[in-house]
Amino acid sequence: MHELGKKEVLESAFAGRHHYSMKTDQARITIRKSEDRGHANHGWLNAKHSFSFAGYHDPAHMGFRSLRVINQDRIAAGGGFPTHPHRDMEIFTYVLEGSLQHRDSMGNGRALLPGQIQLMSAGSGVTHSEFNPSSTEALHLLQIWIQPHTLGLEPTYTEWHPNAEIEKQPKVLIISPDGRENSAIIRQDADVYRLKLAPGETVEHDLGAGRGLWLQVIHGPAVLNDTELASGDAGHSEDPGKFQIRAGDQAVEALLFDLK
Questions:
Q1: Which of 55, 116, 145, 231 is the most buried (most CB within 10 A)?
Q2: 116 belongs to a structural domain
Q3: What CATH number does the domain containing 180 carry?
């Protein structure tokens, strides 16, 4: 993973600062447009940042509740991040295309494939490296950081892998604080769902009072209540109530965050 402020990720270009809020009967939804994200292209790494990260800084986008980083990274064949440290952050990676080779100071060494997720709780401190082991194919992933509820905990590592039954489900809990429904455990009051909707399919989510919802669209377009979101867009709200996510004439893949 990147480290905030790492010297190797210094350049970024920002497309603009546009805020879009839409009021529906269900909730007020704010859109974070894909083209407005921070952007850094280093040749071996082409990254888009939903929140301020490394050389990209925007005071209006420092995070959302405990959600601190959403980076959409494309890593060229043979490229990657050499061994570097992290601490006091819940870091998970969702592999979209290609393969991700991970090694860390806890003794873990794994190659993750598309649809698989790794969750590393950095706690009191870990070092790790990540790279694209292929000599021909690019690696595409989402890299996400969530702030933990407690500092200085013992580092841990876990993975979440889909099975044939899960692949058929449009809404699957992949990360939670209690590990219910075979989800990976995070040290924060945060539920993360993977959405995979067939054309015309709809799912719902109930957001409780005092919580926030962030929907990150990977492949779209998708409609959040009455708000249209393209690929790479996000919609977020802090209004409690029922949210509906639906696909139009194309399949949708997204991550849905329910955060304290």
A1: 145
A2: yes
A3: 2.60.120.10
User: Is 197 inside any structural domain?
Assistant: yes
191 burial (CB, 10 Å; 0-12 / 13-18 / 19+) is buried
What tokens does 230 get? 């393209």
Contacts of 181 (CB under 8 A, 6+ apart): 172, 173
Contact between 227 and 239 (Cβ < 8 Å): no
The span from the CA of 164 to the CA of 166, in Å, is: 6
- Domain assignment of residue 5, yes or no: no
The CA-atom distances, in angstroms, between 97 and each of 75, 76, 93, 103, 139 are: 10, 12, 12, 19, 6
What residues make up the domain containing 240?
A: 13-259
User: pLDDT tens digits for the chain (260 residues)?
Assistant: 444 443 333 233 333 334 455 554 569 999 999 999 999 999 999 999 999 999 999 999 999 999 999 999 999 999 999 999 999 999 999 999 999 999 999 999 999 999 999 999 999 999 999 999 999 999 999 999 999 999 999 999 999 999 988 988 999 999 999 999 999 999 999 999 999 999 999 999 999 999 999 999 999 999 999 999 999 999 999 999 999 999 999 999 999 999 99
Q: How far is CA 23 from CA 28, 145, 209, 227, in A?
A: 4, 29, 18, 9
Q: Give the ranges where 136-238 is alpha helix by DSSP (H).
A: 164-167
CB atoms within 10 A of CB 190: 23
pTM of the model: 0.90
End-to-end CA distance of the chain: 24
Q: Report the distance separating Cα 251 and Cα 231, nearest Å.
A: 11
Total domains in the fold of the chain: 1
In a domain, 1, yes or no: no
